[in-house]
Structures are given as structure tokens and as C-alpha cells.
């Protein structure tokens, strides 16, 4: 059985830890985090081996793979260190703050043939997986336009400084929110190649943007727009909606429902001419351990199966996340213009 360690157990780290701790295909051998509060709680309520320094943990536990869920500004040095030691790595999104460092990490894991994954969970949601199959079948005809909308109530008033308000720590709507939609567009439609324009708006924050709007063009020539706003209190939680127009139909998909219209009888199973609506309950593959949503368990299961040689390690790789980072860098060029 492979040995898995954790570096960083904040919100996402604790979620991943709970899922991995219950997984039969891996043994969690160590957890490292400098937070005294978190570590004391884990010491009291869990049986995990706890460390304040991740180097001590690596030396003592000798893991095969590591989950990294620290603030984004620490991704580069920690992931680089782990890869240099020949360890498989799952790291939370966004991948890096520096696309040049990201390129080197992509090269390194390929050379060392290491399993690598980044935590963009949308690719494990049934509705988006179904949308991907519909698009690849050609049932929508030639795609010509898309709209990616991602909104939520993260910052709805002026707040004291946190990592979300610091651009050098991965804060801002672009890195925290829009990155999810950029990655999803890259996956569903085609890699984004050009960013003709981008507009950044502050609502409550002082040092980062609260909304971003951009014109995007994929490498296969499909035009679209990105609309991201994390200061919209009309939403209870993050809403992720992708709309795609083709010559033979239209698809509207979010995390709970897929709606698709076909102008003719489609060459795709279980669908007919006109509107078709399918809910997430009919498109979700059951998971052994449910926490927050099937997609979080599914992505961790995929990483574990990949390090065990049971999956292809082709979803959410460093390389795909690097493409997302490249788009973010192109959009950032429009800040303060």
C-alpha cells in the first residue's frame, strides 16, 4: 500500500485528509502544518502522525506521495522540493504564481515519470463530464461561441486583510474564482490561445480585483467571454455555468444540471431533437466516501489510483494546470492598463 503525507491542512487540506484517511488504497503516514491550533486539534481527535515541519515529516515517514494544500505562494518551492525527491504530488489550485516555474515543474515530473495532479475539481462533476462527451461526439456541430460565468458571495463587504486580499498570495477573483472557469473552458472547448481584452473591477477589496471580464479565443478559433464576480451576494455559494453554441445546438451546463438543445436528431445516446434536461443525480458516479460533494472524493480517489498504477494520470495534470496559469498571465497584462 502506498504511503501518503499531507503538507497544509487548512480548509482544503482537511477535506482531502478526511477523504484520503478513509480510502482503502492508501495509508496516511504524516501530516505537517505550522498551525499550533490545527495540529493540537488533530493530535487530540485523530490518530495521524503530526509534524510542525514538513521536512521532519518526510524524513521520518518516507512517503510515496504528498498532498500539498498550502497558500499558493508556497506551491513553487515545496512542490519543486518534493519532485526533486522523486515523490508523486497532488497540489491545490491554482498551480503556481509564476508560469516560468510552472513550466519547469511540468518538465521535471515528465522526466521523472511522477504522478502529478492539481485540484481543479470541476472535471470530476458528472454534468461537466457529460458535456465533454457531447462536445467530443460532434452532436453540437461546429462550435462558434461560449460564455463562462462564475459568481459567488466570497467578498460582500470590506474586510480585514487575509490571503484573499493579497495578490502575491494568490488572492483576487482571477486566481481564486476565474481560474476554475478558465481551466474548465480549456478542458471542455479547447485551450485558450488569445486574450484580446480583460477588465478588472474592484468592489470591496483594496489590493485585488473582485470581478473580471474577458474576451477569450481558443486555439481552435472559438470566441467567448469570461464573466467572474466573487462579490455577488445574490448567490448562496459559487455558481459555475458554461454556455456553448454550435451550428447544431446549444448546451448550458452547471454543477447541478445539463440542458442541451439539438436542432436535429443528435448522433448521441439518450438524447433527442429539441431540449433535453438531465440532473446531476442521473450523471454522478457513486463514491465510497462522501464529503462536500462526490467530486472531491472522486479527484482524491483518482490521484490514489494513479499512484497505485490503476489510473492513467491524464486528468488535471501539472501540464493542464500550467495552460490555465498561462491564460491567467495573459489576462494579468491588462491590469492597470
N to C succession of SSEs: EHEHEHEHEHEHEHEEEEEEEHH
**Low-confidence region ranges:** none
Distance from N terminus to C terminus (CA atoms, Å) equals 53 Å
CATH H level, superfamily name of the largest domain: Dihydrodipicolinate Reductase, domain 2
Distinct helical segment count: 9
What is the total number of structural domains? 2
Strand order of the largest sheet: 8-9-10-7-11-12-13-14
**CATH topology label of the largest domain:** Dihydrodipicolinate Reductase, domain 2
Corresponding CATH architecture of the largest domain:
2-Layer Sandwich
Mean pLDDT, all residues: 94
- The helix content, as a percent range, equals 25-40%
Q: What structural category characterises the helix and strand content?
A: alpha/beta
Question: What attributes does this structure have?
Answer:
337 residues, Rossmann fold, 6-stranded parallel beta sheet, 25% strand, globular
Fold blueprint:
Layout: E1 2-7, H1 11-21, E2 26-32, H2 36-45, E3 50-51, H3 54-61, E4 65-68, H4 75-84, E5 88-91, H5 99-112, E6 116-118, H6 126-137, E7 143-151, H7 173-188, E8 192-201, E9 211-218, E10 223-229, E11 239-246, E12 249-253, E13 257-262, E14 274-279, H8 294-307, H9 318-332
Parallel strand pairs: 1-2, 1-4, 2-3, 4-5, 5-6, 7-10
Antiparallel strand pairs: 7-11, 8-9, 9-10, 11-12, 12-13, 13-14
Helix pairs in contact: 1-8, 4-5, 5-9, 7-9
Structural account:
The model has no long low-confidence stretch (mean pLDDT 94). This protein has 337 residues and is of the alpha/beta class. The chain has 2 domains: 2-121, Rossmann fold (3-Layer(aba) Sandwich), CATH 3.40.50.720; 122-287 and 318-332, Dihydrodipicolinate Reductase, domain 2. Strand 2, helix 2 and strand 3 (50-51) form a beta-alpha-beta unit. Helices cover 33% and strands 25% of the residues. It has an 8-stranded mixed sheet, with helices on one face. Strands 3-2-1-4-5-6 form a 6-stranded parallel sheet, with helices on both faces. The protein contains 9 helices and 14 strands. The chain has helices spanning 11-21, 36-45, 54-61, 75-84, 99-112, 126-137, 173-188, 294-307, 318-332, and strands spanning 2-7, 26-32, 50-51, 65-68, 88-91, 116-118, 143-151, 192-201, 211-218, 223-229, 239-246, 249-253, 257-262, 274-279. The protein is globular.
